[in-house]
Amino acid sequence: MKSGIAKRLLWSWRPESQREANDAIVKNMLLHWFPSTVTKRSLSFSYSFWLGTISAVLFVILSITGLILMFHYTPSMERAYPSMKDIDFATSYGWFLRGVHRVAAQLMVVSVFLHMMRVFYTGAYKKSPGKMGNRPRNWVVGIILLLLTLALSYTGYLLPMDQLAYWAMIIGANVAASVPFVGEHIKLALIGGTIIDQNALLRFYVLHCALLPIFMLVLMAYHMWRIRKDGGLACMDQVSLQHGMTDAVPASTKTYSLLGITSGIDIKVQAPSQMEEEDRILSSPNLVRRLWLVSLGTMAITILLAIYIQFPLEAPADPTMAPNPAKAPWYFLWLQELIADTTFTLAGMTVNGAFLGGIVIPSILLVWLVAVPYLDRTSAANCGIWFPRERLKQNIVFTVVILVIVALICVGAFCRGPSWVFYWPWEQWPELPVNF
Ligand code: HEM
Fold first, then answer.
1. Of all protein residues, whose CA lies closest to atom 28 belonging to ligand 1?
2. How far apart are CA 214 and CA 125, in angstroms?
3. 12-26, 178-192, 366-380: which has the minimum mean pLDDT?
4. What is the CA(55)–ligand 1 centre distance, in A?
5. Local confidence band at 258 (pLDDT 50, 70, 90 cut-offs)
6. Burial of 377 by CB count in 10 Å (0-12 exposed, 13-18 middle, 19+ buried)?
7. Beta strands 349-351 and 344-346: pairing type?
8. Ligand 1 pocket, residue 124 CB under 6 Å
């Protein structure tokens, strides 16, 4: 009996019949998130690498550790830095909590980015061969989630108010100010004044601890819900195609016309009963157990990394002494490098790199990313397959963009010395006079 209760708490018992599986989904709030059965292919590790799930788990870890850190952190110019020091050295397990939060933040940037790459390479942003669902919309939602992940990481980076934080804020504010005509207004809205002080810190604190996470949570819920609305993961389309399934328009009955009021009158269903039995397995225990495994694995890796990697604070923020070089967080180094590379003088005219490299080029990249599902005219029958031949051109362009970004990050991280001068990693930087 006891073990039966434990199994039910872990939602991994094996229902006796399809009927019992359906009942469990209807009766249990957490199981309600899942369909009663899933295709074997969508559970395969080598299709999704579970990167979306890993990103969601990291978000949960960040929310829990962040909430506890909020009890100890004070968002004031005088107290921010000392309260971080207290967390590191005076609070019980404070160093560990901060370490887990920091590691999870970095891992989340990586996992969300890798998830986007996997979705691209499997063409999972394409509409199903039938008319059902709208995967392109979920791709766009994903792009917003990626931007939110970066914004959350950046706003958090600023809170310790050490030298790194202060000068990263200055770089961000200057890039915002470089937008023609409205730049100064954007900067004012971002930092709440003309200099980095209490207003700026409070803005970043509220953004980091409330606005951005709430927005992220709502959008993540929508993202997951859309996966169900889109007929499951894109690899399921292949199963449908194998069985020659097409969308079926249900008979117009009273019930369907009622549904029609809520979601338009063009109702189409892909009845799972049409799918061959052997392709489908019960969500509980199959999906639920894998979810537990991925969640526990993600937690274990985050905790191990947090124990072994140190995140020492820099010196307290000092507006009179800029570190040289002042580097942005690694995931923004490609932008900093682009800004440096696009700042040059031509025929006596100086090109503003902050605007060209910091705003124009990333905006073009963003618009292209958003438009990807609408520009890609290859057959939807390739949706949910890794590197199909027909999408070779798209995959090459995407890979080149990724490689350029990675190369720029590496140059920024390892080859830039004082005054952003290029040095090979093995070259010695020159001695600089103090206060240079
Ligand atoms: C906080 C960030 C994100 C979270 C938590 C998240 C979560 C998920 C989850 C759990 C899945 C199911 C499959 C899997 O585990 O891989 C998924 C699928 C999907 N995600 Fe995300 N995602 C995020 C960001 C993104 C981004 C950046 C994109 C693309 C720009 C994206 C586009 C998609 C699409 C199109 C699918 C359906 C894939 C398919 O049908 O194979 N997501 N997401």
1. 142
2. 25
3. 12-26
4. 9
5. very low
6. exposed
7. antiparallel
8. yes
Nearest CA, atom 5, ligand 1: 56
Cα 121 to ligand 1 centre (Å): 13
- Domain of 197, in residue numbers: 37-420
Q: Is 138 in the pocket of ligand 1 (CB under 6 A)?
A: yes
Residues 213 and 243: beta-carbon distance below 8 Å: no
> 264: CA distance to ligand 1 center in Å?
26
- Asked, for residue 22, whether it belongs to a domain, the answer is no
| pLDDT mean across residues, the chain | 86
Which residues lie across from 346 on neighbouring strands?
A: 349
Omega cis (within 30) before 325 = yes
Specify the CATH number for the domain of residue 168.
1.20.810.10
Query: Residues with Cβ < 8 Å from 363, sequence gap 6 or more?
Result: none
Count of domains forming the chain: 1
Whether 220 is in the pocket of ligand 1, judged by its Cβ within 6 Å, is yes
Residue 191 has pLDDT above 70, yes or no: yes
291-295 CB contacts, 8 Å cutoff, 24+ apart: 291/53, 292/10, 292/12, 294/50, 294/53, 294/54, 294/57, 295/53, 295/57
| Confidence at residue 7, expressed as pLDDT on a 0 to 100 scale | 61
Domain membership flag for residue 108: yes
- Whether residue 139 lies inside any domain: the answer is yes
Q: What contacts 70, CB < 8 A, 6 or more positions away?
A: 209
Contact status, residue 126 vs residue 190, Cβ threshold 8 Å = no
Is residue 224 situated within a structural domain?
Answer: yes
Residue 370 reports pLDDT greater than 60: yes
Query: Could you tell me what percent of the chain has a pLDDT over 90?
Result: 52
Coil, helix or strand at residue 435: coil
Let me know if 359 is exposed, middle or buried by CB neighbors in 10 A (0-12, 13-18, 19+): buried
Lowest mean pLDDT among 86-95, 165-174, 271-280, 376-385: 271-280
Which residue, by CA, sits nearest to atom 24 of ligand 1? 142
- Verify whether ligand 1 is closer than 6 Å to residue 24 (CB atom): no
